[in-house]
Amino acid sequence: MQVIRTVAAMQDLRKTLPEESIGFVPTMGYLHAGHASLVARARLENACTVVSIFVNPTQFGPNEDFANYPRDEERDLELLETNNVDFVFMPSALDIYGAEKNTAVVHLNTVADTLEGAKRPGHFDGVCTVVAKLFNIVRPKQAYFGQKDAQQLAVIKKMVRDLNFAVKIIPCPTRRDPDGLAMSSRNVYLSPSDRATALLISRGLGAAKALWQEGQRDSALLVDRVRQEMAHGNFAGIDYVELVNGEDFAKMTEALPGAIIVVAAKVGQTRLIDNMVLE
Ligand code: PAF
Known about the structure:
- There is one protein chain.
- The strands form two sheets. A six-stranded parallel beta sheet has the order 1-4-3-2-5-6, sandwiched between helices.
- Helix 6 crosses helix 7 and helix 8 runs antiparallel to helix 9 (219-230).
- The chain has 279 residues and is α/β, with parallel strands linked by helices.
- The model has no long low-confidence stretch (mean pLDDT 96).
- Helix 2 links the parallel strand 2 (22-27) and strand 3 (48-53).
- The protein is built from nine helices and nine strands.
- It is 38% helix and 19% strand.
- The site of pantoate has 10 residues, from strand 2 and helix 6.
């Protein structure tokens, strides 16, 4: 496994790689089994796999956890080595954004303006801008994103369509701990009692899905079912529980197949998101 620390070195390396078969997994590090599943899929479907680790400052709001975001380079590199990754791209923020303020920003209307976009202004501009840069530097054939960040996935897919990036976006299922909690680097912040509260999110989503499987299609009732379960916990705040269309994240009144129930809530200081696709 080769670690590449500069944009120039990554671009030089890229020229030597086969055009047709590069799988790319962009990450912010502090890797877990969810990331490992993206890597495994990329390895299976491509001749060579590039993973990036870059805690992207521009996707964090001023009062968010950029400074404290968990980082463990040594452990991450070990995990990637064990998972037979070929190349790890770990640029600095200065190298990615340059010494002057980066004035080119990729902004998507509609899908990036609701829910996460509304609660975290500028977040998807940061995500889209860095992912566009990474796509231009790595020029992958296929790129792998977790369904856990469902709106991010929809935003990236739309950016790729709108800007004609020559990359195929491959969605990968959310990985969960045995108790049902969706894997996230931020779970490390949770105390045992926080975790007990956090678990009510996946429990609520599971209960709503069971109702949907029994034939319930009224989105208000399905959303209520999630909220009922979450009412047993000690959330610091619930940002939203909504049933939306998986393409543009518009709210739906009828829960047609492919709809997603999305949740964002704060447990202690930790903001968690999760979702359930109804299919
Ligand atoms: O999902 C993430 O870890 C990040 O948002 C991403 C896609 C690596 C962009 O910084």
